Amino acid sequence: MKKMNKNILKFPVTGIFILALFLSFNSCRSNDNINQEQTKFGQTRLQINMQGIEEVGNEDNNLETTASINNTSFSTGVQTQSIPFDNNYSLVATLTPASSALKSSAQASLNPRAGIPTPLNSGIMYKVIVYDSSTGAYITEKNYITGQKSESIALDSGIEYTFIVYSINKPGEIPAIKNGENLKTAQLSGIKDDLMFFKRQLTLTPTDTNTLDIVLKHQFSQITTTINASVVGNITEISNVKILPSANSASIQFNDSNNNSPITYTDKTTGNLVNFTSIGATTITSSPTLLIASLTTSGTISIGSITINKITKNNLTYNGIRVKPGERYSLSITLKPTTNGDSYIIYDGQPAARINGQIWMRHNLGADTSVNPDSNPSQKSLHGNYYQWGKKRVVADASTQPNEIPGWETSPIPAGNAWNTSKTSNDPCPRSYRVPTASEFQALLNVTSQSRIGTWDPYDPNGNPNNYSAAVVIKSNSNSNVQLTIPAAGARNGAAGRLNLRGMYAYLWFNNANNGNAYYFASIDGLKVIQYSANPMTGMPVRCIAQ
Which of 195, 263, 381, 429 could form a Cys-Cys staple with 544, CB 3.0–4.6 A? Predict the structure, then answer.
C-alpha cells in the first residue's frame, strides 16, 4: 500500500515537468508570430515622425474676394488701409496672410506644395508627452531635437494614449509642464514665445508599425513689417511702432474633448512693439512681431513717430485690423503719392511747384513771374537777381553790365547763421519762403531727372554775357508734367562783381555756411550737379523753398 502511494506521488512531478516543456515549446512557436518590435511584456515601440508646421488656412467666408484664376474667385484675407502722411502722400498699409496663396483648389493646382507642412529648422527642441486617455494618467515624456535621430518610445499595446507635443521654436529651450501628473490638470503657463502645439489620441497595435506623425500648429500670430519710402527718401527716425492687441503671456490647458486646448491670456491690451533691424534707408524691415491674442477684428497698428526726408509725422494709426491666431502675416507700409501729388500750385501768392512734398518757387528770386519759367530756350527775364551770401540786398540783376561793379562789397563777412533753416531777417525770399539747404536740394535731385535746354557755351571765365538761353531742367519722376527750370545765369565774382560763366553754369545759393565760406549749387555742362564752397561775397541767384 505504501509502495503504491509512493509511485502515485512520483507521477505528478514527472507529468508537471513534461507539461512545462510542452507549454514552453508552444510559447516559443507563438512568439515567432509576434511583431519584432513587441517585447515579451506586451509592449510595442512608437516611432516619432516630426513632419513640420501646418500653416494656418483661412476658412472664413467674410473676407474680401480680391483675385481670380480661370474665373474662379477665392478669398485672400488681404487687408489694405490708407492714411494721409501729408498733402502729397499717403501711407498705404497692406496686411497679407502667408496662407493667402492656399485659399482654393484653383490655387492649390498651381502650387503642388499646397498643404505640405513646413519643416522646422534644424536644432529646434520639442517635447512629446504621453497620457493614458481613459484615466488621464501621466505615462512618460521625451525631448527631441530636429535634425537628430528620434528615439522611439516603449508603450503597452492595445491602449489608447493621448499625445501632447509642443515647442517654442527655439534651439535648446523647452518650457516645463505644470501639474503634469494628469491630463486633466496639465498645462503650460507664462508662455511668451512662439508656441507650437499638437494633440492626438492613438491606440497602439501589437501587429502594426506604430508611428506618431506630428504636425505642429502655431498658436500665436506673427507679423513682419516693411516700410517703403523710396519715392521720397530715407527713413531716418522711427519710434513706438506697436501692434495691438497682444497679451504679455498665455497659458494653454492640455485637457479638452475637441483636441483644441483652450488658451487664456494675461494682460491682453499691452500690445507688442515692432523692432526694426536698421534705419537710414528708403526701405526698412522689422524682425517678426509675435502677437499673443485670440481672433480679433479690431486690431490696431500705430506709428508713434516717423521721419522721412526730414518730414516728421506723429501718431499715425490703422484701425479695424483682423488678425487670426497662428497665422503668419507680412505687413507692407508704402508711401505713395496722393492724387494731388507733384503739381503746380500758387503758394502764398507765388507760382510754385510741389515735388516730393517740397514746395519750390518756379522762378529765380527777382525774375519776371509773368513769364513762363520753363520757356525753351530760357530768356533774360528769367535769370533774376544776384545776392551775396547772408545778405538781403540785391547786388546785380540780369541787365547789370558784365564788368566789375564799383563799390562792390567785400566785407564784412556775414555771420554763419545769417541765413538759416529758420527764416532770418537777412533772408531775401518773400513771405513763407526761405533760402534752401543743400540737403533739401539734394532731396529734390533724388526724386527727379535732370537735363538741359538752350545753347551751352564751352568753358570761358568771361564767356558770352548775352547767352541767356541755357538752363537746367529738373523734372519730377512721379509726374513728368511738373518741373523746375534753373537758368545758367553764372555768378558775379567775389572780388569786384565781374560777371563770370553765364551760359555755362547754373548756380544757386544754399543757406549752409562753414567757417566763412558758403555753399552753392553748380551744374557742369547742365548735367552734372556738384556742391562747392565759395567766397560769400560772390553774387549768385537764389531759388526759394517754402518753409
Answer: 429
